[in-house]
Design goal:
The protein is of the alpha/beta class. It has a single domain (10-239), classed as TIM Barrel (Alpha-Beta Barrel). The chain has helices spanning 10-13, 23-33, 44-47, 54-60, 75-86, 99-111, 130-136, 142-155, 165-175, 202-208, 217-220, 225-239; strands spanning 14-17, 39-42, 64-71, 92-96, 118-122, 160-162, 180-183, 212-215. It has an eight-stranded parallel β-barrel with strand order 1-2-3-4-5-6-7-8, surrounded by seven helices. Strand 1, helix 2 and strand 2 (39-42) form a beta-alpha-beta unit. Helix 9 runs parallel beside helix 10. The active site is at 68 (for ompdecase activity), 70 (for ompdecase activity), 70 (proton donor), 73 (for ompdecase activity). Residues 13-232 form the Orotidine 5'-phosphate decarboxylase domain. It holds the Pfam family OMPdecase.
Length: 240
C-alpha cells in the first residue's frame, strides 16, 4: 500500500460516536473529553433525540460534526435533505452507497454552493458478515461487494466511503490516496465485539489505509474517557 495519505490532523482522525440516549448525556461526554477530542459523530439515536440541535452548540466549542444519517430515499428527497444539512456546516454526511443517491447528494451540495458536508457512501455495515449477506440474497463475496460499491460511489462523485478496516487496504489501493476512508467497528484488543463482526483496533485500521476511525463504546463505557481517547490517539499516531 502507498504511504501517501490525506493530510489530516491527528486529533481529527479519531471520531467519537455519541451513541447515548439523549442530548444531556452527549453534552456530558463532550465535556468529559474536553480538548482531547475534536470530532464527533451524531447518529440516528441522537438525530431522533433532538441531537441535530447539538451541531451549532458543538461548533461554538470548536468541534467538528459527522452526521451519520445514512440517507436513503428517492433522489429528490435525498437532495433536499442534503441541501438543508449543508446549511448546518456538518463536516461529513453518510448516504447509502447507491449511485443515484450519491449523485443527488453531491449535486445538492453543489447547488447550495457549499464545500461541506463531504459525502460518504456506506458500503457494507461492520455488523454484517458473509452469512448475513447470503441471507439477504447476495452471492458476491463480502470484500468484492464492498469494493464494487465503493468504486460505484466514487464514480458517482462521493468524497469517500464507510468501510471496515478489513477492506481498507484493498480500497486504498483501488481508489487512491485522496479518497476518504472512514472506519467504524473499532475496538481495543481486550474489548468485547458486541454487535459488531468485522472489527479492528484503531491502529490496525489506520495502518490498513483508513483516514479516520469511529469509536463509541470503548470510550463511552470507560471510567476515564479522556484517558481512553488519548490511548487511542497514541495508537493512531504509532500507526502513522
Amino acid at each position: 500500500m502507498s504511504s501517501r495519505r490525506l493530510d489530516v490532523p491527528l486529533r481529527d482522525r479519531l471520531i467519537v460516536a455519541l451513541d447515548v440516549p439523549n442530548m444531556i448525556d452527549a453534552r456530558n461526554i463532550v465535556a468529559a473529553l474536553g480538548d482531547t477530542v475534536s470530532f464527533y459523530k451524531i447518529g440516528l439515536q441522537q438525530v431522533f433525540g433532538g441531537g441535530l440541535g447539538l451541531i451549532d452548540e458543538f461548533f461554538r466549542l470548536g468541534k467538528k460534526v459527522f452526521l451519520d444519517a445514512k440517507l436513503a430515499d428517492i433522489a429528490a428527497t435525498v437532495g433536499n435533505a442534503t441541501a438543508n444539512i449543508a446549511r448546518t456546516g456538518a463536516e461529513f454526511l453518510t448516504v447509502t452507497g447507491d449511485a443515484p443517491i450519491v449523485r443527488a447528494a453531491v449535486a445538492a451540495r453543489s447547488q447550495a454552493h457549499a464545500r461541506k458536508p463531504l459525502i460518504l457512501a456506506v458500503t457494507v455495515l461492520t455488523s454484517i458478515d458473509q452469512n448475513d449477506l447470503t441471507d439477504m440474497g447476495f452471492t458476491m463475496p463480502l470484500a468484492d461487494l464492498v469494493e464494487y460499491r465503493a468504486r460505484k460511489a466514487k464514480e458517482a462523485g462521493a468524497d469517500g466511503v464507510i468501510a471496515s478496516g478489513f477492506e481498507a487496504a484493498r480500497l486504498r489501493a483501488l481508489l487512491g490516496p485522496d479518497f476518504r476512508i472512514v472506519t467504524p467497528g473499532i475496538r481495543s484488543a481486550d474489548s468485547p465485539k458486541d454487535d459488531q463482526k468485522r472489527v479492528m483496533t484503531a491502529g490496525e485500521a489506520i495502518r490498513a489505509g483508513a483516514d479516520h476511525v469511529v469509536v463509541g463504546r470503548d470510550i463511552l463505557r470507560s471510567d476515564k474517557p479522556a484517558d481512553k481517547a488519548r490511548a487511542i490517539l497514541d495508537d493512531i499516531a504509532a500507526a502513522l
